[in-house]
Design goal:
By secondary structure, this protein is an alpha+beta fold. It is 31% helix and 28% strand. The protein contains 12 helices and 15 strands. It has a 15-stranded mixed β-sheet that branches. β3, α4 and β4 form a beta-alpha-beta unit. The longest helix is centred in the first third of the chain and has 32 residues. About 9% of the residues have low confidence.
C-alpha cells in the first residue's frame, strides 16, 4: 500500500520544524552559557581597598586553611584587602553570620559553600541592599549554575568583586502539619534572632512590610518540594555526596521510584493567566477561581516550587526567571513504574531543546506547570519535604511566598555572541 504524498510532506515538514526549533534552542542556550562564563573585570583598586566578608562552610573542604589561603591570594590579586572570614555552624548554617557581616558595614558578603550555605546567607542578606557573591564549592551549586558563575574559586572571586550584578528573588517556605521535625533550623528564626541580639540602637532588620521572614520560615533560592524529590534528598547520604557528587542523588532517586503518589489540594496565589498553545499540550495547572487565586486537586509523585529552572542535566522549569517575582509550580506524575519515569525524563530532556511536554491521555508520565506569586499544597498524608536539596523531615502542607528583588547578586558580564567571536 502506497503512502499518500500529503502525509509524507506533513511528516517531513513537522520534522523540519522540530529540528529547526531544537537547533535554535540549543544555539541560544550555548550562546547564553558561553556569554555568562566570561568573568567581569575586578573593581578599580584606586577606589580604595575593598575587604570582602566571606561566610564559609568548613565541612565542604578537606583543608579549610588551604582554601582560605587560595581565596585570600585571589582577593589581593584583584586589588582587594584580605577578606574577613566567618564560619558556619550546625546551629547556624550562615544566616546569622550574614546579618553580622552586614551589621559591621560589609560592602560585599560572599557565600562559600553549596546551595544550603548560599540560601542561608541569602536569608541573612535579604532586603539589605548589600552585594552578595557566591563561591560555589558544594555538590549541586544549582543557583550558581543558573547565574553562570565559574566553578574555579579564583575566577568566582573575580565575579564576586566585579562590577556586574542583578536582582534575584528569594522564596520563603513554611511547613504545616509536621510529623517528622526538620533537622535544620529555619532561617527566618535565625535572621530574627541575629537582629534581636544586636544593640537596640544598631538594629536595622527589615520590617514586616519589607518581606521580613516569620520565625518558622525557610529560605529557598532554588527549588522546594514534597513527595519524590523530598524522599530523594532524605535518602542521599552526605558521605556519598562528597565522594560521588551528583551520582549520589541519582542513586537515592532510584531508591525512591516506588514511593506512593500524593493526593493534595494545590492553591495558586495570584497566578499568571494561562494561555494554552493552539494545540493544547495539557501541560498547564489550571484550577477553579477563588477570588484572585485558583484551587485544584493534584495526584502526583512530586509537587515543586522553583525560583530558577536549570538543574545539572535537566531543564526543570522552562519559564523560570530569577527576577520575575513569580514562583514556578511544577507537578510531576509517573505511572507504570519505570516506564512512567522514563516518560517524565524524556519530557524534561525535551525542554532542553525547546520542546514543551505533551501530556496525552495515554501518557505514563506527565509534567505540568503554572506561575504564581505564591502557592500552597496540602496533602492528605504527610510527605517528605526538601528545600534546595536539604531534607526537612515530613509535613502535610507547604506554603510558599516570594520576596521579589530580595538580593543584589554579583554575576559575570553578559557578552553578545559577536563579542565572543575570535579576532
Amino acid at each position: 500500500m502506497s503512502i499518500p504524498k500529503w502525509l509524507v510532506a506533513a511528516v517531513l515538514g513537522a520534522s523540519a520544524i522540530g529540528a529547526g526549533r531544537a537547533a535554535v534552542a540549543l544555539t541560544r542556550r550555548a550562546r547564553r552559557r558561553s556569554a555568562l562564563s566570561v568573568p567581569s573585570p575586578p573593581a578599580d583598586p584606586a577606589e580604595g581597598l575593598l575587604r570582602p566578608w566571606i561566610v564559609m562552610n568548613p565541612s565542604k573542604h578537606e583543608d579549610p586553611a588551604a582554601f582560605r589561603a587560595l581565596v585570600d591570594r585571589a582577593a589581593m590579586d584583584l586589588g582587594a584587602g584580605p577578606p574577613h572570614w566567618l564560619e558556619t555552624t550546625r546551629e547556624d548554617p550562615g544566616a546569622g553570620q550574614a546579618v553580622e557581616a552586614v551589621s559591621r558595614g560589609a560592602a560585599v558578603v560572599i557565600a562559600a559553600g553549596g546551595d544550603g550555605t548560599v540560601r542561608a546567607v541569602a536569608a541573612g542578606m535579604a532586603g539589605s541592599g548589600v552585594r552578595m557573591g557566591i563561591l560555589p564549592v558544594g555538590t549541586g551549586n544549582v543557583l550558581a549554575g543558573n547565574l553562570g558563575l565559574p566553578d574555579d574559586p579564583a575566577a568566582a572571586m573575580a565575579v564576586a568583586l566585579g562590577e556586574y550584578h542583578r536582582n534575584v528573588d528569594l522564596t520563603w517556605v513554611r511547613l504545616d502539619g509536621v510529623e517528622e521535625a526538620s533537622p535544620l533550623p529555619a532561617e527566618g528564626g535565625l535572621v530574627l534572632a541575629a537582629h534581636a541580639a544586636r544593640p537596640l540602637e544598631a538594629q536595622t532588620g527589615p520590617g514586616a512590610g519589607d518581606g521580613a521572614p516569620a520565625p518558622d520560615e525557610y529560605a529557598c533560592a532554588v527549588v522546594a518540594g514534597m513527595g519524590f524529590d523530598g524522599r530523594t534528598m532524605a535518602g542521599t547520604h552526605a558521605a556519598l555526596k562528597k565522594q560521588f557528587g551528583w551520582i549520589a542523588y541519582v542513586l537515592a532517586g532510584l531508591g525512591s521510584i516506588g514511593a506512593p503518589r500524593l493526593s493534595a489540594r494545590l492553591t495558586l496565589r495570584s497566578p499568571e493567566a494561562w494561555e494554552p498553545a493552539p494545540i493544547d499540550a495539557g501541560d498547564g495547572l489550571v484550577g477553579t477561581p477563588r477570588g484572585d487565586d485558583e484551587v485544584t486537586r493534584v495526584e502526583a509523585r512530586s509537587v515543586m516550587f522553583a525560583n530558577c529552572g536549570e538543574l545539572k542535566f535537566l531543564l526543570l522549569a522552562p519559564d523560570a526567571n530569577l527576577s520575575d517575582g513569580l514562583i514556578d509550580v511544577i507537578a510531576v506524575d509517573a505511572q507504570a513504574g519505570l516506564l512512567g519515569w522514563a516518560d517524565v525524563t524524556w519530557k524534561f530532556l525535551g525542554q532542553l531543546v525547546g520542546l514543551r511536554p505533551l501530556n496525552l491521555p495515554v501518557s505514563t508520565g506527565t509534567v505540568a506547570f503554572r506561575q504564581a506569586r505564591g502557592a500552597s499544597v496540602v496533602a492528605q498524608a504527610a510527605q517528605a519535604v526538601q528545600v534546595d536539596g536539604d531534607a526537612l523531615g515530613t509535613a502535610r502542607a507547604m506554603r510558599v511566598r516570594i520576596q521579589p528583588d530580595a538580593l543584589d547578586v554579583a554575576v559575570p558580564a553578559e557578552r553578545t555572541w559577536m563579542e565572543l567571536l575570535p579576532g
